[in-house]
Amino acid sequence: MTARIDVNPAAILTARQHIAGIVQPTPLELSRPLSVLLGAEAWLKLELAQVTGSFKLRGAANVLRRLPPNVHVVACSAGNHALGVAHASALTGHAATLVVPATASPAKIAALRRYPVDLRLHGQSYDEAEAEALRLAKVHGWYFISPYNDPMVIAGQGTLAVEVWEALPNVEVLVVAVGGGGLASGVGLWAKAINPQVRIIGVQAAASAAMAAALRAGRVVPVPDGPTLADGLAGGLEADTITLPILQQVLDEVVCVDEAAIMQAMHWLFVEHHLIVEGSGAVPLAALLSGQIGDLRGRRVVVLLCGRNVAAETWQRVIATVSGEAERPRAAT
Q: Tryptophan synthase beta chain-like PALP domain: which residues (predicted)?
């Protein structure tokens, strides 16, 4: 078994070397429509172009490249982390068991079935799937790859920020989705190391906002876990998660967005940029479009669009709902 690592900029640079050949760099695109709306210089980091459709491949690849080849791994996920582990393990040769809630996106489940993994649908929520994955790890002695509570995962996710700063120096504001906090921790550690003055804003779905509540309370606390289009961000937190103290240091603020705002953002990205983005990937833009983030005029802003894996039926419903609202005649005043 490999030794745990400290999470720091050096670990992120090492992770970049480990994931080479599995993870591909993704585009950073200037958004003229968003720049005009915000009065800022707004860029979109298109991590949805990653081969598995999300950033999760980065962390999974870093873990698997550091493990001996005979180690059996187990992971739980609403879909994207499992896809990352499935894709990376197929290339590294590790045996992998993936536990996914039965309620996960059909698109993600269908994609997982294409890989040579032991796929198990268990429970109705992320928390139930995680409990089963942890049980399997304990019973069989398998290595549990947490979607967020693992230094190697966090370091892998941080490589996304390395790409941003290589392509676009002097970023002033970074807007990132927050679930368990692995992505925000990794990119935040790198960003603050490069420029301690950079403003990092985390965005979470209001329907399932465990990390936002933990940051307010200073510890992990129970919160409602409601249904949300941002299913990849939903679920509770491990009580000892290392992401909480990291985010306490690197996040300047956290905002929560409702389902209507997430739908609006998904629709906007399709209309303005012809991009299909899942709810979890759209939450940073949802916060911007709904006016929850201020003091942006004249700033250089990067929005991380971290995933595209949305079921066709869900995406069509979102587009139809928002388009219908836009076309509905307003009552005369």
A: 22-307
